[in-house]
Amino acid sequence: MKTSRRDVLKLAGGATAVALVGPSVARASLTGNFDSPLDLNGGGTVVNATGPFSWDSDDAAGWVIATITQGNVVASGMASADPSKSTWAARLSTASGRLTPGTAQAQAVAVVRHNDGTLETYEWSQSVTLR
Fold this sequence. Notes:
CATH superfamily: Immunoglobulins
CATH architecture: Sandwich
Number of strands: 10
Strand content: over 45%
Shape: elongated
Number of domains: 1
Distance between the termini: 49 Å
């Protein structure tokens, strides 16, 4: 019997994320990335992160946990991803400090649930421009 459990994670900046932990299989077909440039809002305390997301036919659901780091300031957030769409979007916010226009480092982890209930994780990292 396949089972999974939910773990609550505390992310940088005090954000809370739910991690799904369970059986997984090895595949490498999902691709994720960040769009760049990304727009700053809230005086540099919010980034609306977006990016392309490709799915396999047996993908049922997905979640993206993302962070943007610039110096000592970190914005973080989580969003669900819809297999019927080719993009993801998450509102990332800082717990303290402000991001400024310029270069930052973006990281994300995606958890994908397949139709058979197995889970798979993917991660990506890249430099982005904030404006």
